[in-house]
Amino acid sequence: MTEQTHTINSNKWIDNYADYMFNYAIVRVNDSDIAKDLVQDTFFAGLKSAKNFQGKSTERTWLVSILKRKIIDHYRKINSKKGKAEVRMNFYDDGENEGNWIEERVPQNWDNASEKKIETEELRNQLESCIDALPEKYAMVFRLKTIQEFETEEICKELDITASNLWVIIHRARTQLRKCMEDNWFNN
């Protein structure tokens, strides 16, 4: 039995897959700089492990599977104590970069659509605050399963928990989120 080798064409990765992978990452991390870094890390990891590509999937599918791991690693890092310290160190609160997180916009008409957009943004912000208030493990599992739509088996494997434990965590997270939203949004 001869071992079949599959060659990959890494010279075309950026042209063929960068946009798709960036869009995939940005939806999951909601930060364009982090998404760009994750895609770059994915390409680098793909180059390093190119000899492991077996051709059982397309190059894009193989790269996206690497990207999924990078996204999970990103969330693990920011949910660890060390990761939180690193995230805080990267925040600028003075100097020339102060306020660069505020997106400059052209003034818009204050019509009903604008009010709905503001209310939707406020609701999203309140929901994020409630998710952030959850215990770390609850927030991580909730985001991975409900927001980022990772498969149950993948989450269980990565976090070393059982499927029943995952669903208990999801149930408890939803219960706490409902209470938080009732207290901070619906009853205000």
Automatic annotation (TrEMBL):
Residue ranges of every copy of the RNA polymerase sigma-70 region domain listed in the record: 15-77
MF GO annotations: DNA binding; sigma factor activity
Superkingdom of origin: Bacteria
Gene Ontology BP, a term: DNA-templated transcription initiation
A Pfam entry, by short name: Sigma70_r2
UniProt-listed InterPro entries: RNA_pol_sigma-24-rel, RNA_pol_sigma-70-like, RNA_pol_sigma-70_dom, RNA_pol_sigma70_r2, RNA_pol_sigma70_r4_t2, RNA_pol_sigma_r2, RNA_pol_sigma_r3/r4-like, WH-like_DNA-bd_sf
Keywords: DNA-binding, Sigma factor, Transcription, Transcription regulation
Positions of the RNA polymerase sigma factor 70 region 4 type domain: 125-177
Family, per entry: Belongs to the sigma-70 factor family. ECF subfamily.
Protein name, as recorded: Sigma-70 family RNA polymerase sigma factor
